[in-house]
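In the design runs reported in the main text, the only information available to the sequence generator was the tokenized backbone. The following block is the verbatim input for one such run; it is reproduced so that readers can re-run the procedure and compare outputs position by position.
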């Protein structure tokens, strides 16, 4: 079994954050979203991973993931030359996949459920597809699946009248018949080749398509608000670890991870908080629910419910930064 991880999207809903960084490399709880996907796949015993990228972000993503050594994986890169939809992105990886089953994973989705649970069902029951689903309060925002008994009988992409509340959450296990279905697709009304249409074609041809419904946490990280929601959920799980240096005038309340080389002076840390390496914090209040990347400098600022990316400087004369995603290298100074 191999895995195909889709990283070809341009992140238009998150501009200007994504003007200079691939959306899949934006850090949540100080780890790029893409890394969570790769770790989930490798934990399922799948080591051969093809990452589908667009030409603009290929170099950025490869510079972070390399050939997958840090994950215990073997990574290849496949370019999708045009943004023609998820099914088209999968088709671009056809040579990489060969005739093996593939785990298909949307890299901008965080899924708490081990993908191993879906791969185990695929290996046990030998369907053409296993689709991961979850009940959603707003299913019209997602592709959805309708179930009859223990099999999927219909899929629909972002319908105003969805046939169920079971959202397709961005992870699948597929056999080689998916490529035959993609070959026969026509573009949807929005001009894209939809993976839901391809799987629906498998259903129409009588192939077995099974659901795997999770009750665990998941999140599409397609907007800044989604990033902050995901950040809160992941920070709630952290285990305290302090490798930095706090002076006697500073305090830590609650769970915090503080990286090596970080210096905190005359400041209050209110967990859950993750602070990266080589950060300087002076006369500030950090938290709750804050992630701060490496090499940041934060002074005279109250930061809460926010993500601050690598190399940023916040010096706001006691002002509050709340509900914000601060891009890497930003310098915010308020002069008195």
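Verbatim output:
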């Amino acid at each position: 079994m191999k895995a195909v991880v889709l990283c070809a999207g341009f992140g238009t809903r998150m501009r200007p954050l994504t003007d200079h960084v691939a959306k899949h490399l934006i850090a949540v709880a100080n780890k790029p979203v893409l890394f969570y996907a790769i770790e989930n796949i490798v934990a399922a015993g799948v080591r051969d991973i093809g990452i589908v990228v667009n030409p603009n972000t290929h170099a950025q993503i490869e510079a972070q993931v390399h050939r997958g050594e840090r994950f215990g994986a073997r990574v290849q890169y496949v370019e999708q030359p045009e943004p023609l939809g998820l099914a088209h992105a999968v088709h671009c990886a056809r040579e990489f996949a060969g005739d093996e089953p593939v785990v298909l994973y949307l890299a901008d989705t965080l899924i708490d459920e081990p993908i191993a649970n879906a791969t185990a069902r695929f290996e046990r029951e030998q369907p053409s597809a296993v689709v991961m689903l979850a009940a959603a309060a707003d299913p019209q925002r997602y592709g959805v699946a309708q179930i009859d008994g223990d099999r999927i009988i219909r899929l629909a992409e972002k319908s105003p009248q969805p046939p169920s509340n079971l959202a397709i959450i961005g992870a699948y296990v597929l056999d080689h018949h998916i490529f035959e279905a993609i070959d026969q697709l026509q573009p949807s009304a929005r001009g894209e080749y939809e993976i839901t249409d391809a799987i629906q074609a498998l259903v129409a041809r009588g192939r077995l398509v099974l659901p795997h419904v999770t009750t665990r946490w998941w999140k599409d990280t397609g907007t800044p608000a989604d990033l902050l929601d995901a950040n809160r959920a992941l920070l709630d799980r952290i285990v305290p670890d302090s490798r930095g240096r706090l002076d006697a005038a500073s305090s830590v309340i609650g769970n915090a991870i503080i990286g090596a080389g970080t210096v905190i002076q005359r400041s209050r840390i209110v967990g859950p908080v993750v602070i990266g390496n080589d950060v300087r914090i002076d006369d500030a209040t950090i938290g709750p629910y804050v992630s701060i990347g490496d090499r940041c400098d934060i002074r005279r600022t109250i930061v809460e419910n926010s993500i601050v990316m690598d190399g940023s400087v916040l010096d706001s004369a006691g002002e509050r930064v709340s509900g914000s995603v601060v891009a890497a290298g930003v310098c915010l100074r308020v002069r008195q």
